[in-house]
Structure prediction request, 517 residues.
Amino acid sequence: MAARERLHAGLARLKRHYRSRHTSPISTLVHTPHPYGRALGLIVVVLLGAWLGLLIVGSVRTPVGPMDTSMTLRPSLSGGTKINVSPLGALELDSHTAPIRLDVDIDQLDPVRSQALVEHPERLAGLQEEVTQDVAAGTRELALRSCVAVVSGATALGLAVFRRPRRALAAGGLAFTLLAASGISAYTTWNPQSVLEPKFSGLLSSAPSVVGNARSIVTEFDVYQKELARLVTNVTKLYEATSTLPVYQPDPGTMRVLHVSDIHLNPASWHIIGSLVEQYDIDVIIDSGDTMDHGTAAENTFLDPIPDLGAPYVWVRGNHDSIVTQRYLQRLKHVHVLDEGRAVTVAGLRVAGTGDPQFTPDRSTVAQGDPAERMAGIRLASALRDQSRAGTPVDIAVAHNPVAARETDGEVPLVLAGHVHHRETELLPLGTRLKIEGSTGGGGLRAVENEKPEKVRASVLYLDRGTRTLQAWDEITLGGLGLTTAEVSRHLATEPPPQGPDAERTTPPATLPSPAS
Prediction:
């Protein structure tokens, strides 16, 4: 008997030793009878479950004035508020101290609600109150959804881990208590003056120099409210103007090319281009560069609408477009990036081009000026000659800077450029027609700083499908962000080119009535 008892005692010691060696730390925390271990295990389950709940269902989409936004609560050691303005960057406010952070994503401007502001100007006076009410409603909905998310997440995970309803309910209750404590902490430490010292990141890091001192925004909020309402109104009027452009139906054998340039990160340009592609049945879009403003990777998502514009997109690099921008575009569908004289055939049209040799936002590199542009043009002209000798002559050449474009004289019937933000048409000495486009982005986001915003310009080129020679072109001019007119001017290739930038044409423009009238 004594031997049997000793044997059983030895086996029991071996089992205890085996369990201690093969039990996971989490299981030990959860199942250990020690009260501190059980408490620690419960806290781990509550925090993990609450985080999963917020991640899955803890987000609210809510309108704020004419904008669509998403609000989310995130666990955080420092608290505060982060406002994401894609693709421009973000700004952070030290608004409160709590283990939760409020993330606000500004998704898009709703054209329907914006149009309602235009049609009913009396609503602009109540825009501030409307925005305040929208934010309050979104916050209340977010608080309710977050409570449900953290309690449900903690309870579900507690039930899966502990397998005891009582402990699972305890986990849900503790999660609610922690969220309530965080909410009280955020409320008691709320700092409305945090808007005076925002921290900008991405492209918004230059925002203080654009919008002025943050303190003046607070002290003169009424002025900024009116300016914001005016900007929303003008953008909406611009959208409306593009939808009223007349439609031209040329011969079915005519190819239609849309020439755009110098968009400079203006998101309204994609709406304008898409409208023109649809109304004019465009075969090819040619962009002569400066699509971006700083050429940073943060700007790249601005380019994402290009594959959905409805026509192939041919692009050359401008002096505001970086190699990072070029590589991103090369990965997009329906986009053809031209550089160093590369030629492609798109919709039956042979196009060759080169990127700008200078990237001027990089202040660490000294710009080489016109000599560098001429060398780039000479290399492009050489590539054009090589194409002709190979039996694949180029129909249209593209360069961003007109200095480079002029070097192709005699090697191609038509060369397109941009850069100077105004239109010019010039018949070069050896027979090449140079067409310089204005800014399709109306000067870009900087246009809102000017008293009289820059006009938005694009051109539709009509080419014979058999000979691929230019027959005529329409110059389309929109009144910029602050005006509400649209003009379409028809010009024939047989006409002598006008002298000087934006000179008066022999064909009178068709001026459209203001959509606000």
Residues 22-30, 203-236, 501-517 have pLDDT under 50 and may be disordered. The CA atoms of residues 156 and 168 lie 7 Å apart. The chain is about 40% helix and 20% strand. The first strand starts at residue 59 and ends at 64.
